[in-house]
Task: structure prediction
Amino acid sequence: MTSDFSSSASVAVNPAEPVYRAYAALASVSPLDVEAGLGGKLLFAGEIKERSRELLFAANIAGAASLAASADPGSLRLAIRDGVIDFSVTSLEEALRILKNEIRKRQPVSVGVAVDSRVLVEQMADRGVLPDLLPPLELAATFLRQGAREVVHPVDQVGEFVSWSVDREFNRWLPRLDACVQAIVPENDYLRLRWLRLAPRYLGRLARRQHGVVLSMEEVTQFRAKAADMFQQHTDANARIEINGQLLA
Result:
């Protein structure tokens, strides 16, 4: 895989940021449906590695079905544990049985097949399985010739990726902070609203202590004001809340 969805990962405060960038990349290639997101689309992510893990997380959040491969049992076990994939199977046939059902229902699902990615590509080509989306993969050029669309790093959105975190009572405070952000994001901004709603569910441990999304400078100011007001309304509050590493006053 040659795409670099994690180009900013080394400097990102929030480990979810490269997943968000991959999510935005998917949406830039295939616009999100208001209800289903990318439901009904199939992403082939290639070999399960760091960058493809980000893309698989992003596909789940976007609502797409996704397929990946790894001949390493350890990688598959780790991907299942972290929620990167929902199912680990031993053959393309098993994967297709799962994928076809969820694609028909326009529901997200991610499947890892226990074979080398090159073998899986050959099997997909033989079976006539054509993904809708895939990252830049030399071994999957045949899919592009047949109409698959390539997912590349998106043009940066206006603003920066802003993180908010708490040091305790995560289940209490993070949803309230999320609601503060949702209140300032325009109602027709399906990209960010879907992310805010679904990313915590799919990211698991990555989103346990902190959440984040791209915000403009004006939106950051509004967010800080709403968050401070919300926090002050709770006289029993003793949590430490930070926005982009700065303590909420």
Summary: The chain has a mean pLDDT of 91. Residues 91 and 135 are 22 Å apart (CA to CA). The radius of gyration is 19 Å.
